[in-house]
């Protein structure tokens, strides 16, 4: 089972004439509302600090997107916790509001593709500086908007002493609770269920900002020697008649170090119960726009919607472009329930 890549890929590419997005457009949050696909995408220019912002593009067919503004719609704050960069939005709708989870750093990461993997710029600071600042940690926060033009920052979602990204909210409550998916890199070893590689965890809460004191639940962990040794959430879960469909990402070690995507099916009433999991990736880097860029051999799913029975999966490719892959929703669900049950 493979998702079919759009013949018009990449559906969004850097704009060489605009300073804040002339190098990168990738990792978009996408939602479909009242006949319009809204794409909130990660964008950056070729400046030395590599400041990362969000742009907005819209479409009526899910393939051909037009930029909605010549300026970013969401940028790092002036002097707040997310003053360095904002990255990788995921979008869910509740009522008439769109809630956006996003990763951030207190200072810009610098030209990270020129450093060893997962290394970023760090500030010069005293011994008393908090860890988040001293290590320029990637954390996650929540914002809300009604129109994708004006946003309100609601606050930090994750611990300030953890590198904790790929934070995604379920679009509906489960058992009367909000549900959050996240990937804390430091949750390793015997203390954390013997987890050997960064894994996907779930939390449940009565409040969208109160997560830090909630019990952690391991959802899935990576599989040694495979394409998914290190894993993390991808796009927001989709509720279907057969359970929660989750598209996630994985990356292997050594010669397998390409970012790919797989799928999970979770019980609709108890998302801690994994019903099915694809043993092989359903999306992987093959085309030049996926293998040649700032991070070679990378497909990174961050947005998905279902329209008229078709699943649209939007992904960053090579940390530079945005791709689209599709399938019939029922085809993927049939594959999971007929071939991948656990």
TrEMBL record:
Task: Give one GO term, molecular function aspect.
Answer: glycosyltransferase activity
- Highest taxon of the lineage: Bacteria
What sections of the protein cross the membrane?
Answer: none
Gene3D superfamilies on file: Glycosyl hydrolase domain, family 43
Task: Give the matching Pfam families.
Answer: Glyco_hydro_130
Which SUPFAM superfamilies does the record match to this protein?
Arabinanase/levansucrase/invertase
Keyword line: Glycosidase, Glycosyltransferase, Hydrolase, Transferase
Coiled coil start-end: none
Q: Which family does it belong to?
A: Belongs to the glycosyl hydrolase 130 family.
The name on file for this protein is: Glycosidase
Q: Which organism is it from?
A: Candidatus Cryptobacteroides faecigallinarum
């Amino acid at each position: 089972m493979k998702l079919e890549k759009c013949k018009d890929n990449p559906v969004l590419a850097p704009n060489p004439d605009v300073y804040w997005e002339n190098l990168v457009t990738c990792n978009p949050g996408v939602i479909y509302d009242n006949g319009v696909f809204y794409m909130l995408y990660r964008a950056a220019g070729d400046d030395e600090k590599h400041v990362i912002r969000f742009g907005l593009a819209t479409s009526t067919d899910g393939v051909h997107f037009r930029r909605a503004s010549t300026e970013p719609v969401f940028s790092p704050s002036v002097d707040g916790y997310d003053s360095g960069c904002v990255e990788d939005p995921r979008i869910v709708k509740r009522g008439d509001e769109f809630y956006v989870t996003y990763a951030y750093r207190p200072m810009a990461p610098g030209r990270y593709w020129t450093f060893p993997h997962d290394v970023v710029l760090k500030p010069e600071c005293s011994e008393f500086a908090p860890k988040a600042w001293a290590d320029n940690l990637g954390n996650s926060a929540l914002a809300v908007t009604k129109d994708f033009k004006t946003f309100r920052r609601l606050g930090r979602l994750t611990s300030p002493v953890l590198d904790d990204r790929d934070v995604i909210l379920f679009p509906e409550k489960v058992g009367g609770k909000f549900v959050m998916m996240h990937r804390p890199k430091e949750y390793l070893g015997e203390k954390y269920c013997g987890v050997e590689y960064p894994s996907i965890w779930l939390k449940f809460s009565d409040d969208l900002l109160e997560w830090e004191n909630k019990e952690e639940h391991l959802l899935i962990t990576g599989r040694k020697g495979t394409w998914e040794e290190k894993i993390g959430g991808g796009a927001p879960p989709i509720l279907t008649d057969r359970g929660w469909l989750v598209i996630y990402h994985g990356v292997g070690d050594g010669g397998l170090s390409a970012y790919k995507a797989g799928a999970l099916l979770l019980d609709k009433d108890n998302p801690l119960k994994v019903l099915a999991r694809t043993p092989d990736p359903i999306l992987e880097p093959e085309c030049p726009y996926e293998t040649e860029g700032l991070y070679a051999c990378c497909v990174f799913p961050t947005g998905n919607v279902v329209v008229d029975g078709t699943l649209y999966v939007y992904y960053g490719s090579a940390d530079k472009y945005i791709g689209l892959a599709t399938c019939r929703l029922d085809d993927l669900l049939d594959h999971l329930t007929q071939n991948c049950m656990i």
